[in-house]
């Protein structure tokens, strides 16, 4: 019997193999670090903005994992696969219905729309309100011109009651309702934005606290502290008090710890519960393509005593945010 010795590996081949391994590690390590930061809730500094794109990273993370396993780089493959599985476990449930809450009660449709300095197409907002039987509308970046445009488009015929804090520029906020409102008012958060609020009681239902949310955006490092403080100052759910609906432009995704902490006080994210939690809401500029991948920063948060039937998002001309409509089930009075 002749024993054949293994053919020697050429230096060039060894170099190529090492180069590919190094390249894969360079691709895997950022995803691994991303996973650790997301799990630890360490969204600080520039990581605040970056974590908005976690759903994209969760998809991308599978590519180096597959490449490492196919090329039999087992240690690298296991590390990459672990990161991909963890990110998938964090993100995928948003696309799966679950935790909708109570199915019995009275239907209530609510909507939120950021009007982009009041320039959003008021006629389209009114059309969506009418077509979707919306009973409560929250608006952000609500200006005097935006208020006038909504009135001219006939919003008052559909939602005659309101709690409004319109201002020039971005700070304004408003709540419109089909039903009479009590305890109306507004408060200015640390970031400088108004948040209009009110209590509404649909016929046959108990009272509901409603607030148009608009924390400051973490658009620059210097704004991160106020962004975090604004989210921390949002009204917590009160299981022993009036059920609350907090809806608006939160300038945060479900991958940001401050928003998750707010939800953990006793809310459910309506889109997440309906399996629509990955539908992006910003930025949308019509035919223009944004250099920023769209993310989900507009939310409808509901007290856990409120059920979620369905959620949809809708493009509105002349604003970079898509409107969110949630079909809810509220407790009977």
Q: Based on DSSP secondary structure assignment, what is the total number of beta strands?
A: 12
Could you name the CATH homologous superfamily of the largest domain?
Endonuclease/exonuclease/phosphatase
Q: Which CATH first-tier class of the largest domain would you pick?
A: Alpha Beta
Give the count of helical stretches: 11
Radius of gyration: 24 Å
**In terms of quaternary structure, what is this?**
single chain
Instruction: Label the overall shape.
Output: elongated
* Major β-sheet annotation: 6 strands, mixed
Q: Which secondary-structure class do the elements indicate?
A: alpha+beta
Q: What does the average pLDDT come to?
A: 94
N- to C-terminal distance: 91 Å
CATH topology of the largest domain: Deoxyribonuclease I, Chain A
The CATH architecture assignment of the largest domain turns out to be 4-Layer Sandwich
Provide the fold topology:
Layout: H1 11-40, H2 47-50, H3 54-60, H4 62-70, H5 74-91, E1 106-114, H6 122-131, E2 136-140, H7 144-152, H8 155-158, E3 161-165, E4 173-177, E5 181-188, E6 194-200, E7 208-213, H9 224-233, E8 244-249, H10 257-263, E9 267-269, H11 270-273, E10 298-303, E11 307-314, E12 323-330
Parallel strand pairs: 1-2, 7-8
Antiparallel strand pairs: 1-12, 2-4, 3-4, 5-6, 6-7, 8-10, 9-10, 11-12
Helix pairs in contact: 1-4, 1-5, 3-5, 4-5, 6-7
